[in-house]
Amino acid sequence: MCGIVGYVGPRDCTDVLVSALTKLEYRGYDSAGIAVFENGRIEVAKSKGRLTDLVAKMEREGKPQGHAGIGHTRWATHGEPSDVNSHPHSGRRVTIVHNGIIENYKALKQFLIDNERTEFLSDTDTEVVAQLLDFYYDGNPVKAIRRVLHEVRGSFALGIVFADRPETVYAVRCESPLIVGQGVGEAFIASDVPAIIKYTKDYYLLEYGEIAVLKNGSVTFCDLHGRMVEKELKTADWDEDSAEKGGYPHFMIKEIHEQPTAVKTTITPRIENGMPDLSECGITPETLKKVNNVFIVACGTAMHAGMVGKYIIEKYARVSVTVDIASEFRYRDPLIGEGDLVIIISQSGETADSKAVLNLVKGTAAKTLAIVNVKGSSIAREADMVIYTHAGPEIAVASTKAYMVQLAVIYLLAFEMAYAKGKIDEGKCQRLTAELMRIPDVIKETIEKTVDQCQYISTKLITADSLLYIGRGLDYALSMEGSLKLKEISYIHSESYAAGELKHGTISLVEEGMPVIAVATQNRLLEKTVSNIKEVKARGAMTIVICDEEADIDPDAADYLIRIPKRYEVLMPMVATVPMQLLAYYTSVNKGNDVDKPRNLAKSVTVE
Ligand code: AGP
Fold first, then answer.
1. 583 vs 578: CA distance, rounded Å
2. Nearest CA-CA partner of 29 in 49, 45, 57
3. Which residue out of 296, 347, 409, 491 has the highest number of ligand 1 atoms within 8 Å of its CB and is therefore the one to mutate?
4. Is the Cβ–Cβ distance between 99 and 1 less than 8 Å?
5. Which pLDDT score, from 0 to 100, does residue 130 have?
6. Are 291 and 343 in contact (CB under 8 A)?
7. How far apart are CA 335 and CA 338, in angstroms?
8. What is the 8-class DSSP label of residue 233?
9. In the sheet where 41-48 sits, what is the strand order?
């Protein structure tokens, strides 16, 4: 995924573009560039590396001076990170920035070469689009854009400037998100609201195929057929601070600390008289009563939330739950139909693999429910029902508070479905819901109790070549998330494994000093989990055990015991995930990694 920005107005355009791009670097950061109108000409500055490298390059070589232009920060898909592959890309009279992927770029490139357009400088799909726009441009920018939209296949958003249309920025959206900010006498385009919130909270959401024209600080819109479009002006519901670090060294640690508030903000409006009430999301007891099977489909951390959800929904609602990785689900010809509920979990609401599942399910009798954090995102808007989590903007690439609120929503959904189906009575449902309402304070207490210990233990992990995360039942589901957190930001390999399955092969990996992190919060499985811990310890593992403050753990079994507050076993995932987040965070910090923008990753993967 990449970040696109654009500006038209009285300010120094380069400063605005750079400032906006710093808020989008979480979307991709292997190169950056801008194109600005200066004295009627388009001046381009771009470079491989972080945005700071681009700024340094402009300080050395001079920065474009103007009041209209476009900018980009890249997560490479076609063509390695390099100066020449950085955006913007140009034809003779057109310069563009692009987010997404052009699936038929090879055929289009061949078409251009067959028509004597052979001057390609880069390996990117983006340059093909710039050349194609130039090829069709006959002096009418919107006409050229519309023509190209009919020929290009893929999911993308574009920011465009035409050399003979100074002080004007064009934008178009086909799948990849793009907003148009409206300030006083100035207008913006951006891939996400944090980029412009410093300047304005008012924005338009571009729909599929819509084209925006920014000129003289105002905006006009037209659709794919060239018809003018009136659009609703929206207002972002959070401020710039919430998209800043707030005094923390990294967004990730800030977002870990925001979890109590995020959970409280998410569940409180969905609880009425002590009972779950999702009616604001279009979900009623009648809706839930009809559900015979649940499919939870997502990617990465969101899928791990689904794994926890499987145990909870099956335990209480007594409904079969299948959890799938989105990129697998869509190709396995799933058996879905009447009475099936497909739950898509996604923080960004823009993950291409997860979005593709929606399109697949649309052709069936199954219903779709999205659990999404970003308001107005594609998945949220295309699902039959949506439960928004209210975690606020999650900037760190490694998801923490979004995962926590996804769990919270799944618990509410499970309890309401169980009650609607008559599997639990009102009293039980109220007790479970009341326990869930206490969890934000328990999360806060757990952070305070374990932060120093996790910081210390992380110093024992930084030299590891590989780690194992083990657990049984809910603890196994939870260990998947712990493992991903660690490896994606520390770059140390780790693997989560069902504790009871180790002896069937994987235990051969265990050698002297290998860290094994065991999650042991499920008391009815504790004895067996402790046996598994002893098995690895007997083979030299360094064991780190996460358990509640009353768990009876043999001191010989654990090199390190991280004790957390004891709550209802079924809710322990929301407590035990905290030390695993902290272990991952401090291991990454101790390794000197860029915690918030780990290598090779992006916050939302809008390509397949
Ligand atoms: C989370 O730590 C990861 N960065 C990643 O796995 C993420 O959860 C996944 O890409 C799904 O993103 P989404 O929730 O925005 O769909």
1. 9
2. 49
3. 347
4. yes
5. 96
6. no
7. 10
8. P
9. 41-48, 31-38, 68-74, 3-8, 187-190, 179-182, 202-205, 234-235
Q: Whose CA is nearest to atom 9 of ligand 1?
A: 300
* 371: confidence class by pLDDT, cuts 50, 70, 90: very high
Report pTM: 0.78
The predicted structure's pLDDT at residue 77: 64
Longest dimension (CA), the chain: 78
In CATH, the number for domain 247-424 is: 3.40.50.10490
Query: What's the pLDDT at 240?
Result: 67
Which region among 34-38, 96-100, 209-213 has the lowest average model confidence (pLDDT)? 96-100
CB atoms within 10 A of CB 142: 14
CA 264 from centre of chain = 21
CATH 3.40.50.10490 domain locations along the chain: 247-424, 445-591
Indicate whether 591 pLDDT > 80. yes
565/245 Cα distance (integer angstroms): 28
pLDDT per residue over 441-498, tens digit each? 999 999 999 999 999 999 999 999 999 999 999 999 999 999 999 999 999 999 999 9
How many angstroms is it from 289 CA to the middle of ligand 1? 30
Whether pLDDT at 175 is above 80: no
Which CATH number does the domain 3-243 belong to among 3.60.20.30, 3.40.50.300, 1.50.10.10, 3.60.20.10? 3.60.20.10
Contact between residue 469 and residue 517 where contact means Cβ atoms under 8 Å apart: yes
Domain 445-591 in CATH 3.40.190.10:
no
In sign, the C-alpha dihedral spanning 64, 68, 69, 73 is positive
Which residues are near ligand 1 (CB < 6 Å)? 299-302, 346-348, 351, 354, 397-399, 488, 604-605
Q: Tell me the three state secondary structure of residue 370.
A: strand
- Both tokens of 546, joined, read 């996460």
* β-pairing verdict for 385-388 and 367-372: parallel
What residues contact residue 482 under an 8 Å CB cut-off, 6+ apart?
A: 469, 496, 517, 519, 577, 580, 583, 584
Average pLDDT over the chain, rounded to an integer: 93
* Atom from ligand 1 closest to the CA of residue 300: 6
